[in-house]
Amino acid sequence: MREPFLSAIPILKKLEDAGYEAYFVGGSVRDYLLHKPINDVDIATSALPEEVKDIFPKTVDIGIEHGTILILFGKKSYEITTFRTEGDYQDYRRPREVSFIRSLPEDLKRRDFTMNAIAMDKTGQLIDPYNGQQAIQNKIIKTVGNPKDRFGEDALRMMRAVRFVSQLSFRITEQTLAALKELAPLLNKIAVERKTAEFEKLLMGENWREALAIMLDANINMFLPGLKDRRQQLEKFSSYQCEDFTKIEMWSLLINSFQLSAKEIEDFLRAWRLPVKEIKEVKSIIASLKKRLHEEWTLYDMYKAGWAVIESVEKLYCEIKGIAAIQKVQQLRIKFDSLPIKNSKEIVVTGNDLMDWFSREPGSWLKEMLSKIEQAILARQVKNDKQKIKEWLMACSQN
Ligand code: ATP
Ligand code: MG
Question: Who contacts 284 (Cβ-Cβ below 8 Å, separation ≥6)?
Answer without folding.
Answer: 305, 309
